[in-house]
Fold this protein.
Amino acid sequence: MPIVTQIRNSGVKIISVGLNQTTEIFSDISDRLFLSSTYNISANISNEIIELICPIPPPPEEPMGTLCSQNSQNAWLDVAVIIDISNAMSTRYLSEAAGQLDTLFRLFTIGQQPKHSTRVGIITFGSDATVRESLINTTNFDNLQTAFFDITNFYDPNDKGGNILK
């Protein structure tokens, strides 16, 4: 898993959300793993992710500077969403996942402007991984929303998948 090591060595935390998962298949590549037994991201998982991104620190004795905002619209993040498009999924499940991602990322300011913008990339995988949207492609929420719902176009019922951990 050299790519995971490279990513971590550059200071990135890997947070994985396994939809329709009950096993910790991604535990080897994740710094924090959330599992959902359905194709829904619960409010608890969403809140825990936001807390991981910007934890509430104890108040300093003598405040200096600005504390990390608990307002997700002020988050300054680079996020890669990795989606299984193999025959383990279906267009229905991919559409449900797109709706969940749409709901989650509505909480963030999507864009390319420094300070308080979140950039989102999309990678799909089955037998091979493909970058569908790089971090610089999504310039606003509307672009991102379209990209999420376009994922169903890449579903391949003949792809047996299995290469995400290679």
Notes: The CA atoms of residues 122 and 133 lie 5 Å apart. The first strand starts at residue 15 and ends at 19.
